[in-house]
C-alpha cells in the first residue's frame, strides 16, 4: 500500500516537473504561441503557428526586438477551451512571456480573456470575428464585421443582387454577423421577404436571429441546397455563407451537384481563405467569392517578397510536422505576421517590453506596411486595413475584383444600421 | 499480509495523500513556494478526479459504462456558472446589469429563469437538482427496459450529443458555444485573488476527500455489495430477488450528483464553462482516466485523473506535435498489459518480486491489494 | 460605414484607360457604328466595369458569329492583351501551331487581321508572356446574356433551355418576339416548356390586362416554380389596381405553383432520405460486421473510413502529377502517371478496390496487434481502440498535414438530372446504387462462400467452431479485415460527399453506432432498415419542421424557444432523431432485430 502512495507521488512529480519553467536567458525575450496543433481546430491553426515561427526567424535574423532575440514558447491548446485557459496561465505566470500570439475561435479567445485581464498580459488575435468586444489586453488584428461582411454586401448590391440567402454554422460568430447583416441589408432598402434562411422572433415579434444554421460537422446539405435552388429560381439571388471550415466541403460539393454556379447564384464565404482552399474541390468553386484583408494574389513587390520568403523558410525549416508542399499564405496568417511586426513597432516605440507601455504605444496609431498594404493601429485595439473582394480560381487562388482602402475596424456594429 | 495490516496501510496511505493535498499544497501556496498557476491546475485536476470517481462508481462498481458523465459535470458547471454570471453585475462589456450575450440577443431585462440564480443557495440547489432529475428520468427509462452493456453506453452518448447540440444554440439563452466566462466574484470575493484560488482549491480537496470516504463507506455496505454483484452477474442478482433496476437507478443518480459537484467546483477555477465540455469524447476521456488509474478501486480514478491530466499539461507544452501519439499509445498499452491500472502496479511488482526470489508460492496467490476485476475481465487470465 | 470604395489602379493601367477612352471618343466621332469586333476589343481594354458591361450589352442581338467565339475566349482566359513596345495595347487571340519557344501567331481582335510589328512583319507571341483580359462575374453575366440570345439557336437542348430561362427571368419584353419565333419552330418538348414559361413570365410585364391574364393562366398550367416571385408581384399590382379578375388569376396561378412545390418537396425529401440512408448504411456496414458480428467496439472505425478516403486522395494524385508526403521530417515522393482527360477520370474507380485493400490491411494489423487480446472484454476494446483512433488521427495529421486535402469529383459524379423539378444528383444516385451493390456483395460473401460459413459459425459460437476444427484466430482476422475494408470503401465514397481530413472519421462514428444499435446488434438486415429509417426521418424532419414551427407557441414557458428551434430544422432534426432513438430503445431494447441467445449474461 505504501507503494500506492509512491506511485501517486510519482504522478505528482510529473506535474510538478511540468510546472518548472525553463531557464531565462538575458538576451532573449519569450513570446507565447497559443494555437491548437491537435484536435478539430488544428486544421486551421497549424498554419498560424508556422507563419509565426517564420516571422520570429525573420525578425531574429535582423537583430530581434530591442536587441533581444525572440524565443518562441509554442504550446498546444488541443482544441480544448479550458486547456487554452490553462496554457494561457502557464505562458503568463510560469514562462512570463512578453506577448502571446494565438487563438482562432471566439470561444478560445473568450476562455483566455479573463486570464489576460487578470495578469495584464497582451494577446494578439488574428482571425475574423464577430466584434462586440473590446479588451485592453487583446490586440485585434482580426477582421471586424465591417471589414469583411458589410463590404461583401456592398459589392453584391453594386452587382445588382436583390435576394440574399444567409447561411451559417450554429455558433456565435455566424449568428452575430448575420444579425448585423440583416440590419445592414434592411438599411440598404432590401425587403425582408428577399432575405432568405428564415427568422427567429421573440415573444414580442422582434427578430432576434436571421439565417439558416447547421450544427458543427454537418454533412448533409441536400435539403438546404434544394431550398436555395428554389430561392434563386427567379434570379438575382446570392448566398452569404458563414459556414465554418469543415462543413464547406459537403456544402459546395452539393451546391455544384445541384447545378448551382457562381453565375446563377454566387456564394461569398467569410471563412474560406487560400489555406482552407487546400481542402476544397477548387474546380467546383470557380467564381465564388471571398472577402478578406489580404489575398496571396495581391500584386505588389512587398507581397511577392513575403510569399517567396515564406516558401524559402518552409524549405529549410525543420519544425516537426511541418507540411512543406503546396503551402499558401492567407489573411489570418498575414494578420498574425502583421501582428508580430506591430508588436515589435510598439515595443520599440515604448523602449520596453512592459505591457502597459507597449499598449500605450500601440494605441497611439502605429503603421506597418505589410503584404496586404498599410495597416494602422487604432485606439480601440483594432486596426485599420484594406479590404479585398476576390473571385476564386481553379488553382485555389483569388482574383481580386474590388478593393476598399483603409477601412476602420469597428467592433460595435449592432444597432448601428437603421432600416429605411 | 493479514487483512487488518492491509487496512492499516491503506488508511495511512490515504491519510498521507489527504494531508499532502489538503494541508501541504495550500500551505506551500500561502508561503509562495507553489505558484497560483500550479495550485489552479491542481484544483482542476481534483475536479476531474470527482468526474473520474463518478465514472468509476458506475463502471468499476456497477458495470455500467456511462458516456454521459461529462454531461452531468457540465450541467453542474452551468448551474454554478449562472450564479457567477449574475455576480458580474454591470461590469460586462456592455455595462448593463444582465449578461453580455443577452444584451446582444436584444434582451432588455433578464429572462424569468435567470432571476433566481442571483441567490447562491438556489444555484447550489440547482447544481444538484438539474443533473439529478435528468439522471433520474433517463436512468428510470433506461433501467426499466433493462438496457445494459454497450446499449447503455451508446444511449448515454446519444443523450450527451443531443444536449451538446442544444447548448451550442444561442436561443437556449445560455451563451451559445461561447458559454459563460469573464467571472468576477464568488460570494463577494474577487475570483482573481490568490486567497480565493486557494480557498477554492481547498474546497475541492475537501470535497474529493468526502466523496472518497462516502464511496468507501458505500462499497462496504450491503448496498455496495449488491451493486458489485450486479456488475459481476446481473441476472443472478435478479434471480435472487433483488430489484436490480432500483439499485442501478440509485447509483446512477448518485454518480450524476458527484459529477455535477465536480463541475460546479470546476467552473470558477477554470474561469469558463461551455458546451465543448459535454461532447462525447470528454466522457470517453474520463473513462480512460479510470482505466489508467485502476478501475474498480477508489484511489484509481483519482490517481488516473491526476496522472493523465498532468501528463497532458506537460506534453502539450513539451511535445505539441506528438503528445496525442504518446497518450493514445499509453491507453492501448494500459488496456492490454495493465488491466488493473496504475494502482495495481505495486501488487504486480510484489508478485514479480516473489517469483524472483523463487520462494514457494504463498498459500493465497492472489495479492490482497489487487483490485477486484470483473468476471468478464478475469475470464481471460 | 463612411469609406467609399476606390479602385486600386496602378498608374500604368490608368494611363491605358485614358488612352483607350481617348480612342473610344475618336471612334465614336467616326461615321460608321463600331463592328462587334471593335466593341469587344474596346471592352477588353477599358478598366471601368460599368463601361465594359455597357459595351458588351451593345452586342445584344447582333448576329456576328465572331461574338460567340471571342466572348468564349475571353471567359476562358485565352483572350490576351498585348502591349506593343510603344505602350499601345492590343487585344489578341493566339492561334495556329506553337513553335519550340511556345510562340504562336496572334490575331487582332478588332480587325481579325494578323498582328504585325512596326515593320509589318507578323508577330509570334507566347501565351505565358501575355496577360489575359480581365473579367468579373457581373461581366460574365453580361456576356452570358449576349450569348444566350445567340444560344437560342444552339444545337444542344440544354443550352437552349438555359438561354431561354435567362431571358425570361429578366422579363425582357423586347426579346419576346425572338422567343415566340423560336417557339414556332422548336421541336424539343422540354425546351418548348421553357419557352412557354419564359414568354409567360415576360408577358407579366405587358401593359395589357388580357395578355397578363393569359400569361397567368399559362403559368398556372405550367406550374412554374421560377415564376413564384413574379406572380406574387403581379398579384400585388393587381390588388393595388383593384383588379379582382387579375388578382383572382394570380391567386389561382400561385395556388397551382404552391401545390407543385409541395409535390416537389415531398418527392425530393423522399429521394434525399434514401440517399442519406445510403450514406449512413455505407458508413455503418463495416461496423455492423466488426461490432455487430464480432462484438468489438471499434472506436477507430472512423479512422478506417479516413484511411479509405486518404487512399482515394493518393490514387487521385498518382493519376495526376504525383505527390510528396512529409513523414516525421522525411519526404516520401510518390511519382504520378501524369494522366489527363478521360483516363484521369478513372482514378475514382481504381481507388475503390485500393481503399478496400488498404483499410483491410490496416484493420488486420490492428486486429493482430491489439484487438485479438480483447475479444472477451468488449468494453475495454472500446478504450483501446479509442487510443488507437487518437494515434491514427495524429498519424494522418503528421503524414498529410492538419489541413483537409482536396479530392475532386470525376465528371461522372458531378452533374445532376432534373426530373420534374426534383434534383437528382449523380453522386447521390451513385451512392444509392453503390449501397445496394455492397449489401448484395456482402450477402453473397456471408451466405454463399465457405468463408462466410466460417465467419457465421465463429461469430455464433467461437468455442464450438474452434472445437469443430475452424481456425477461429484466422477467421477473426479475416472478418475484422472485411469490416475494416468496408469502412475503407465507405471512405472512398464519402470523399465525394464531404471533406477529407484527419478527423473525418469523427463525423461518422456516432451515427454509425446509432445505426447498428437501432438495427439490432448482429443483424445486417436490421442495420439496413435502420439506416434508411434514420435517414428518411431526418430528411422529413428537416423539410417539414419549419412548417409546424408556428404551431408550437402554445407550449407554456418554452413556446417561443421551441418555435425558434424548429426553424433551425437541421439542428432540431438531429436532436429529435437522437431523442427518438433513446425512446425507440425503450420499446425495443435490443434494436429492430434481436439476435436470440441462450447465454445467461447476453
What does this structure look like?
The longest helix of chain A has 20 residues. The N and C termini of chain A lie far apart (77 Å). Chain A is of the alpha/beta class. Chain A is globular. In chain A, a hairpin with a 5-residue loop joins strand 16 and strand 17. In chain A, the strands form 3 sheets. In chain A, strands 6, 7, 10, 11, 12, 13, 14, 15, 16 and 17 form a 10-stranded mixed sheet that branches. A 5-stranded parallel sheet of chain A has the order 2-1-3-4-5, sandwiched between helices. With 381 residues, chain B is mainly α. Chain B has 14 helices and 4 strands. In chain B, the strands form 2 sheets. Chain B has a two-stranded antiparallel ribbon with strand order 1-4. Chain B has a two-stranded antiparallel sheet with strand order 2-3. In chain B, helix 2 packs parallel to helix 8, helix 2 packs antiparallel against helix 9 and helix 7 packs across helix 8. In chain C, 63% of the residues lie in helices and 7% in strands. Chain C is an alpha+beta fold. In chain C, a hairpin with a 2-residue loop joins strand 8 and strand 9. In chain C, helix 11 packs across helix 20 and helix 12 packs antiparallel against helix 14. At the A-C interface, helix 2, helix 5, strand 8, strand 10 and helix 7 of A face helix 5, helix 10, helix 11, strand 6 and helix 15 of C.
Amino acid at each position: 500500500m505504501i507503494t500506492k502512495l509512491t506511485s501517486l507521488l510519482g504522478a505528482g512529480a510529473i506535474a510538478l516537473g511540468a510546472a518548472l519553467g525553463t531557464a531565462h536567458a538575458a538576451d532573449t525575450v519569450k513570446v507565447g504561441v497559443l494555437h491548437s496543433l491537435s484536435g478539430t481546430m488544428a486544421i486551421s491553426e497549424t498554419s498560424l503557428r508556422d507563419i509565426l515561427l517564420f516571422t520570429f526567424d525573420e525578425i531574429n535574423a535582423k537583430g530581434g526586438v530591442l536587441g533581444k532575440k525572440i524565443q518562441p514558447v509554442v504550446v498546444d491548446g488541443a482544441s480544448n477551451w479550458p486547456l487554452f485557459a490553462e496554457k494561457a496561465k502557464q505562458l503568463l505566470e510560469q514562462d512570463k512571456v512578453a506577448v502571446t500570439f494565438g487563438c482562432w475561435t471566439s470561444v478560445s479567445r473568450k476562455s483566455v480573456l479573463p486570464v489576460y485581464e487578470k495578469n495584464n498580459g497582451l494577446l494578439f488575435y488574428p482571425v475574423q470575428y464577430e466584434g462586440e468586444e473590446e479588451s485592453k489586453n487583446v490586440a485585434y488584428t482580426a477582421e471586424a464585421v465591417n471589414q469583411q461582411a458589410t463590404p461583401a454586401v456592398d459589392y453584391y448590391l453594386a452587382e445588382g443582387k436583390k435576394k440574399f440567402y444567409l447561411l451559417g454554422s450554429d455558433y456565435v460568430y455566424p449568428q452575430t454577423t448575420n444579425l448585423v447583416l440583416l440590419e445592414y441589408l434592411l438599411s440598404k432598402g432590401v425587403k425582408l421577404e428577399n432575405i432568405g434562411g428564415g427568422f427567429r422572433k421573440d415573444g414580442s415579434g422582434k427578430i432576434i436571429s436571421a439565417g439558416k444554421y447547421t450544427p458543427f460537422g454537418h454533412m448533409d446539405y441536400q435539403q438546404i441546397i434544394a431550398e436555395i435552388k428554389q430561392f434563386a429560381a427567379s434570379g438575382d439571388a446570392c448566398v452569404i455563407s458563414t459556414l465554418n471550415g469543415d462543413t464547406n466541403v459537403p456544402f459546395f460539393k452539393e451546391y455544384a451537384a445541384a447545378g448551382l454556379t457562381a453565375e446563377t447564384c454566387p456564394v461569398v464565404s467569410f471563412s474560406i481563405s487560400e489555406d482552407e482552399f487546400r481542402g476544397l474541390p477548387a474546380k467546383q468553386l470557380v467564381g465564388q467569392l471571398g472577402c478578406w484583408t489580404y489575398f496571396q494574389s495581391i500584386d505588389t513587390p512587398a507581397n511577392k517578397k513575403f510569399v517567396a520568403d515564406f516558401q524559402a523558410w518552409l524549405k529549410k525549416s525543420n519544425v516537426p510536422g511541418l507540411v512543406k508542399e503546396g503551402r499558401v499564405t492567407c489573411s489570418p496568417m498575414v494578420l498574425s505576421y502583421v501582428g508580430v511586426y506591430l508588436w515589435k513597432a510598439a515595443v520599440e516605440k515604448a523602449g520596453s517590453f512592459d505591457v502597459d507601455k507597449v499598449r500605450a504605444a500601440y494605441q497611439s496609431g502605429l503603421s506597418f506596411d505589410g503584404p496586404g498594404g498599410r495597416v494602422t493601429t487604432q485606439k480601440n485595439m483594432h486596426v485599420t486595413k484594406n479590404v479585398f473582394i476576390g473571385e476564386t480560381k481553379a488553382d485555389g487562388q483569388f482574383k481580386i475584383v474590388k478593393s476598399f482602402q483603409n477601412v476602420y475596424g469597428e467592433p460595435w456594429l449592432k444597432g448601428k444600421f437603421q432600416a429605411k | 499480509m493479514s487483512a487488518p495490516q492491509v487496512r492499516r496501510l491503506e488508511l495511512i496511505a490515504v491519510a498521507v495523500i489527504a494531508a499532502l493535498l489538503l494541508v501541504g499544497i495550500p500551505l506551500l501556496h500561502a508561503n509562495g513556494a507553489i505558484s497560483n498557476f500550479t495550485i489552479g491546475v491542481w484544483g482542476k485536476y481534483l475536479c476531474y478526479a470527482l468526474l473520474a470517481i463518478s465514472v468509476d462508481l458506475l463502471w468499476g462498481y456497477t458495470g455500467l459504462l456511462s458516456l454521459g458523465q461529462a454531461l452531468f459535470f457540465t450541467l453542474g458547471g452551468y448551474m454554478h456558472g449562472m450564479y457567477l454570471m449574475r455576480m458580474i453585475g454591470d461590469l460586462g462589456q456592455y455595462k448593463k446589469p444582465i449578461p453580455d450575450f443577452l444584451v446582444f440577443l436584444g434582451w432588455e431585462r433578464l429572462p424569468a429563469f435567470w432571476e433566481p440564480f442571483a441567490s447562491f443557495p438556489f444555484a447550489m440547489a440547482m447544481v444538484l437538482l438539474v443533473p439529478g432529475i435528468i439522471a433520474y428520468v433517463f436512468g428510470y427509462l433506461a433501467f426499466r427496459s433493462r438496457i445494459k452493456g454497450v446499449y447503455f453506453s451508446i444511449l448515454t452518448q446519444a443523450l450527451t450529443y443531443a444536449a451538446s447540440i442544444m447548448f451550442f444554440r444561442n436561443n437556449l439563452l445560455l451563451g451559445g458555444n461561447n458559454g459563460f466566462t469573464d467571472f468576477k466574484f464568488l460570494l463577494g470575493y474577487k475570483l482573481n485573488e490568490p486567497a480565493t484560488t486557494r480557498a477554492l482549491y481547498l474546497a475541492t480537496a475537501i470535497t474529493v476527500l468526502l466523496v472518497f470516504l462516502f464511496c468507501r463507506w458505500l462499497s462496504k455496505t450491503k448496498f455496495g455489495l449488491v451493486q458489485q454483484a450486479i456488475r459481476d452477474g446481473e441476472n443472478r442478482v435478479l434471480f435472487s430477488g433483488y430489484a436490480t433496476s432500483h439499485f442501478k437507478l440509485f447509483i446512477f443518480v448518485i454518480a450524476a450528483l458527484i459529477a455535477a459537484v465536480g463541475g460546479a467546483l470546476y467552473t470558477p477555477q477554470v474561469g469558463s464553462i461551455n458546451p465543448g465540455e459535454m461532447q462525447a469524447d470528454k466522457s470517453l476521456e474520463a473513462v480512460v482516466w479510470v482505466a489508467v488509474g485502476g478501475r474498480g478501486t477508489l484511489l484509481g480514478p483519482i490517481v488516473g485523473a491526476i496522472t493523465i491530466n498532468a501528463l497532458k499539461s506537460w506534453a502539450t507544452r513539451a511535445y505539441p506535435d506528438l503528445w496525442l501519439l504518446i497518450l493514445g499509445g499509453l491507453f492501448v498499452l494500459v488496456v492490454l498489459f495493465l488491466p488493473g491500472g496504475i494502482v495495481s502496479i505495486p501488487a504486480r511488482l510484489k508478485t514479480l518480486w516473489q517469483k524472483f526470489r523463487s520462494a514457494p508460492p504463498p498459500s493465497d496467490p492472489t495479492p490482497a491489494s489487487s483490485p477486484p476485476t470483473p468476471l468478464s475481465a478475469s475470464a481471460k487470465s | 460605414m463612411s469609406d467609399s470604395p476606390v479602385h486600386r489602379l496602378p498608374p500604368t493601367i490608368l494611363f491605358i484607360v485614358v488612352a483607350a477612352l481617348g480612342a473610344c471618343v475618336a471612334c465614336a466621332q467616326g461615321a460608321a457604328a463600331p463592328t462587334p469586333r471593335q466593341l469587344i476589343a474596346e471592352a477588353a481594354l477599358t478598366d471601368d466595369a460599368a463601361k465594359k458591361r455597357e459595351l458588351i450589352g451593345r452586342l445584344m442581338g447582333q448576329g456576328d458569329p465572331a461574338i460567340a467565339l471571342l466572348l468564349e475566349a475571353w471567359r476562358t482566359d485565352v483572350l490576351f492583351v498585348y502591349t506593343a513596345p510603344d505602350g499601345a495595347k492590343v487585344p489578341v487571340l493566339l492561334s495556329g501551331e506553337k513553335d519550340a519557344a511556345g510562340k504562336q501567331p496572334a490575331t487582332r481582335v478588332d480587325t481579325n487581321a494578323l498582328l504585325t510589328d512596326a515593320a509589318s512583319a507578323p508577330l509570334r507571341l507566347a501565351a505565358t508572356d501575355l496577360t489575359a483580359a480581365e473579367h468579373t462575374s457581373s461581366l460574365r453575366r453580361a456576356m452570358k446574356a449576349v450569348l444566350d440570345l445567340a444560344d437560342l439557336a444552339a444545337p444542344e437542348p440544354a443550352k437552349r433551355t438555359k438561354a431561354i430561362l435567362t431571358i425570361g427571368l429578366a422579363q425582357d419584353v423586347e426579346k419576346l418576339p425572338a422567343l415566340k419565333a423560336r417557339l414556332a419552330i422548336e421541336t424539343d418538348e422540354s425546351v418548348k416548356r421553357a419557352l412557354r414559361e419564359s414568354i409567360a413570365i415576360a408577358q407579366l410585364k405587358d401593359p395589357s390586362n388580357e395578355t397578363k391574364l393569359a400569361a397567368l393562366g399559362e403559368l398556372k398550367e405550367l406550374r412554374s416554380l421560377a415564376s413564384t416571385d413574379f406572380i406574387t408581384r403581379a398579384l400585388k399590382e393587381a390588388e393595388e389596381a383593384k383588379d379582382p379578375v387579375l388578382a383572382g388569376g394570380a391567386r389561382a396561378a400561385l395556388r397551382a405553383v404552391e401545390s407543385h412545390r409541395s409535390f416537389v418537396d415531398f418527392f425530393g425529401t423522399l429521394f434525399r432520405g434514401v440517399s442519406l440512408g445510403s450514406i449512413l448504411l455505407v458508413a455503418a456496414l463495416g461496423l455492423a460486421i466488426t461490432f455487430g458480428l464480432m462484438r468489438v467496439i471499434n472506436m477507430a472505425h472512423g479512422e478506417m473510413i479516413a484511411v479509405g478516403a486518404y487512399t482515394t486522395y493518393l490514387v487521385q494524385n498518382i493519376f495526376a502529377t504525383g505527390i510528396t508526403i512529409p513523414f516525421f521530417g522525411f519526404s516520401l515522393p510518390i511519382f504520378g502517371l501524369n494522366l489527363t482527360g478521360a483516363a484521369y477520370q478513372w482514378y475514382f474507380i481504381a481507388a475503390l478496390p485500393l481503399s478496400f485493400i488498404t483499410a483491410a490491411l490496416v484493420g488486420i494489423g490492428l486486429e493482430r496487434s491489439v484487438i485479438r487480446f480483447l475479444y472477451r472484454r468488449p468494453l475495454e476494446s472500446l478504450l483501446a481502440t479509442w487510443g488507437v483512433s487518437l494515434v491514427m488521427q495524429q498519424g494522418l495529421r503528421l503524414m498529410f498535414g492538419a489541413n483537409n486535402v482536396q479530392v475532386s469529383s470525376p465528371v461522372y459524379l458531378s452533374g445532376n438530372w432534373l426530373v420534374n423539378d426534383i434534383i437528382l444528383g449523380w453522386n447521390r444516385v451513385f451512392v444509392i446504387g453503390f449501397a445496394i451493390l455492397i449489401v448484395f456483395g456482402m450477402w453473397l460473401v456471408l451466405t454463399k462462400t465457405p468463408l462466410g460459413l466460417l465467419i457465421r459459425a465463429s461469430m455464433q459460437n467461437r468455442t464450438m467452431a474452434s472445437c469443430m476444427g475452424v481456425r477461429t484466430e484466422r477467421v477473426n482476422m479475416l472478418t475484422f479485415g472485411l469490416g475494416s475494408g468496408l469502412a475503407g470503401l465507405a471512405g472512398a465514397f464519402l470523399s465525394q460527399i464531404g471533406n477529407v481530413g484527419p478527423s473525418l472519421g469523427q463525423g461518422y462514428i456516432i451515427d454509425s453506432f446509432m445505426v447498428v444499435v437501432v438495427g439490432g446488434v448482429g443483424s445486417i438486415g436490421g442495420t439496413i432498415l435502420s439506416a434508411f429509417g434514420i435517414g428518411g426521418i431526418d430528411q422529413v424532419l428537416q423539410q417539414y419542421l419549419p412548417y409546424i414551427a408556428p404551431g408550437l407557441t402554445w407550449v407554456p414557458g418554452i413556446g417561443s424557444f421551441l418555435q425558434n428551434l424548429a426553424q433551425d430544422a437541421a439542428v432540431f432534426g438531429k436532436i429529435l432523431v437522437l431523442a427518438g432513438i433513446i425512446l425507440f430503445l425503450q420499446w425495443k431494447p435490443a434494436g429492430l432485430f434481436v439476435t436470440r441467445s441462450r447465454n445467461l449474461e447476453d
